[in-house]
Amino acid sequence: MKLSMLSICAVLISLLMSGCSAIDALQFLYNNKMASHTWQTKTKQTSIPFEVLNQQVIAEVTVNGTKNPRMVLDTGAQATVFFETDKTKSFINSLDGKLSIGGVGDKSGDAYFLKNTDLSIGSVAISGLTTIFIKEEDNPMFASQEVTYVDGVIGSDLFTRFVTDINFTKRTITLAETMEKLPSEYQRTSLEIKGSLPYLDIEIENEHGSAKLPVLFDSGGIGSLHISSNTSVTKGEMLYQSFSSGVGGKSNITVNHLGTVIVGDFQIPAIIGGVSENGTSKTNIMGTGLINRFNMILDYASEKVFLSANENFATPD
């Protein structure tokens, strides 16, 4: 079992600069928040279909006139990131500035700024974003273009801007300027938005007791939970040794029976997750194995996520 947290995720939390300063990186994150978006509809709402592959939500967009790049919707990513593929290789001619990025492991890799990016999703367009581009030879998650099954990820550039409804039952993503009337079957759970990333509190219960802990709500992270804590409760019962991988390389973990996980008013039994062995990962991550059990409406402005159990809810981990 490989708990590959494919989330450029907290990658940019540990941003290390080469060829530009850390201040420049923070500036581009701030500038992206100020980027403009325009609607082609009076309703200021759009819906598009998505597919699920390797537990990840993947949707097609348009980037600088290039149609249908396939992008992971990744709440754990602070920026929009492109991988070198047949659809994106033309972007190499527009790269501007080099940087190094790190993630769950203890290594850093090279990436590049791609400025003045226009991104269209359904009937809404975001203009003038600064995005990140990772070349084929620098990609730590895919060995070659032939096995790179997505063209990139969209992170906080999307979620901080729109109320985002991800519905696994209908397989649709709906973006809206504001929250409409909430369906009665949804339950509200508080989020804390830190550095444009969403965190919430969960509880783990097993034969050792119970423990509450904050987790990064990471729709790009494969697996149910990745735990950095070191208590008997959060360790649960070990099954075997493995590793987690991401932009920062590999991080040794044990794969454990964690027990029942409580998210708001929902209880999900018999959850399996990874527990960091070497302490390189400092962030607890709630990944797709748990997130995909819910239809959800994310509203960063009000720091809330609204959850409704879907047909995946009772699927064994």
Structure report:
The protein is mainly beta. The chain has 2 domains: 3-176, Cathepsin D, subunit A, domain 1 (Beta Barrel), CATH 2.40.70; 187-309, Cathepsin D, subunit A, domain 1, CATH 2.40.70.10. It has 4 helices and 25 strands. The chain has helices at 22-34, 156-159, 232-235, 288-291, and strands at residues 3-4, 16-17, 36-39, 45-49, 51-53, 56-63, 66-73, 81-83, 95-102, 108-121, 124-134, 152-154, 163-167, 172-176, 187-190, 192-194, 197-206, 209-217, 225-227, 237-246, 249-263, 266-276, 285-286, 294-299, 304-309. Strands 17-18-23-19-22-21 form a 6-stranded mixed β-barrel. A 6-stranded mixed barrel has the order 6-7-12-8-11-10. It is globular and about 55 Å long.
Keywords for this structure?
disordered N terminus, mainly beta, 6-stranded mixed beta barrel, 8% helix, 317 residues, 2 domains, 50% strand, Cathepsin D, subunit A, domain 1, 25 strands
Outline of the structure:
The protein is mainly beta and 317 residues long. Helices cover 8% and strands 50% of the residues. It folds into 2 domains: 3-176, Acid Proteases (Cathepsin D, subunit A, domain 1, Beta Barrel), CATH 2.40.70; 187-309, Cathepsin D, subunit A, domain 1 (Beta Barrel), CATH 2.40.70.10.
What is the strand tally? 25
Q: In which range does the helix fraction lie? A: under 10%
Q: What's the CATH architecture name of the largest domain?
A: Beta Barrel
Unreliable segments (pLDDT under 50, ≥5 consecutive)?
1-21
Q: Describe the main β-sheet briefly.
A: 6 strands, mixed, barrel
